[in-house]
Amino acid sequence: MSHRLINWFKLSSPYSFYPLAGRMIPWFWALTAVFGVIGLYVGFFVAPTDATQGDSYRIIFIHVPASWLSMFIYIIMAFWAGMGMAFNTRLSSMWALSLAPTGALMAFLSLWTGALWGKPTWGTWWVWDARLTSELILLFLYLGFMALHAAIDEPRRADRAAAVLALVGVVNVPIIYFSVKWWNTLHQGSSVSLTKAPSMAQTMLWGMLLMALCFWMYSIAAALKRLRAIILEREAHTDWVLRLPEATA
Amino acid sequence: MIWNSMSDFWHMGGYGLYVWGSVGVSVVVLVWEQVALKKRTEAILRSLRRRARAEKMDRELA
Amino acid sequence: MSAVRPPIAAAAQPRAGVHPMKALMAVLRRDLLLAMRRKAEVLTALFFFLIVSSLFPLGIGPEPALLRKIGPGVLWVGALLATMLGLQRMFYSDHLDGTLEQMVLSSAPLPLLVTGKVIAHWLVSGLPVVVLAPVLGLQFDLDAGALWILTLGLLIGTPVLSLIGAVGAALTLGVRGGGALLSLLVLPLYIPTLIFGAGAVQAHLSGQGAAGHLSLLGALLALALFFVPWATTAALRISLE
Predict the structure, then answer these.
(1) Taking the complete model, does pTM exceed 0.80, yes or no?
(2) Which of 146-165 (A) contact C at CB < 8 A?
(3) Domain count of chain B?
(4) HSE-CB for A191 with a 13 A CA cutoff
């Protein structure tokens, strides 16, 4: 094999990936900081006050990135869980498991900030608009994935069962979103919608995108750290783990 | 600079509670995630170190 | 060289024995027989549906206009919960006595056997709900047209609930905290069915016509009938290894 080709399959073993993950984490933290600082600066010091919503709209610089990430992470999680089941690679399933709590926290943040945005804008702490309601259901799907995995003792069986659940969930997410949107638009009384956000000034859009990148980099850093903990926990009986410097100090 | 003064910034046009409530909880949640991860890593490393010490003692006594 | 077939190839020949549909009917008949022997379990879920539907008016107030508004939703949620109560029954007792393993190992296609079990579950848990619903709908002051849409919706929707529930039941087979965990897994997936089913009645009552909702329910049923047997088969194999 040419020395220029990377042997990707070597990376699918926990043994190879553990040190690589450790080296990657600081880089993702650096990117998180860079995007975060610039994004928050644009969002809070450059983007103008909105004509209708005043300064309360600035919550979107957290709400929208959290929503996007919660949905994105779910899809990635389901993908890797499926890969782990199809190719029987332990690391893929471990990566899916690492992503789940971060995704769930993003869903929670989306709901919390959504409520805090809804209160000054629409007068109530909770609005049953399509996006928020779907976000709530997504949080349940995350919790279900984590609960099922935690309830099964044998790790590989837990990985595979949770993978089936994630795949069923990912197929259902568009259906759920569509049905909730349908439900919401038919009840015209509550025509409130957080998607009817202020038509975006350029700077607002930039702030949102930068914060989304910040959250994305953060999520990868957090999930990588969790992955390393999971690898140590699951491979605790192996030679290479027992020989790690941090495990023998 | 769009803010006339520092207090304007914190006030957020009257919406300070909501905006900073959002930012604050987000920071708290993400910091908590990192703290929990650190604790989890420490726990597994501690148990691995304990095991290494036990095996070392077994070998020395053998 | 004579055509001596190695043993494995011989066993892979389609057996002259069981026709797949006969296998489905056999499983269906067996499950129904077992359910009839444990009538109490079956009737409990039904009475649950009855009681829960009556609790809501008691909790909210007897005003007819209000009841008409909440009726479809309450009855649909009751149907969801009643279906869920019986889900554990689908695989658990067969798992305990080893029958499930025999089914997984048999030469009949497992998706078909699973379908047989789902049909049995629906006949025992879903169909009674469909039959009772128009009667309970009267408690909520729903008119004949609304009752008809409600019943039709439940007729299409309760099989979907049994189907989706089968996946959950297979995944949580023998797992700690089974019942509550099953609810957590399955209820979010039930939401589209709930929305279209209850929405159909509300659309009818507001004059918009329920055709759209009912077609969407039909689409959900078609999708579920296609995918669920495979997903449940995969889940069963994972739970039984």
Answers:
(1) yes
(2) 147-148, 151-152, 157, 160-161, 164-165
(3) 1
(4) 2
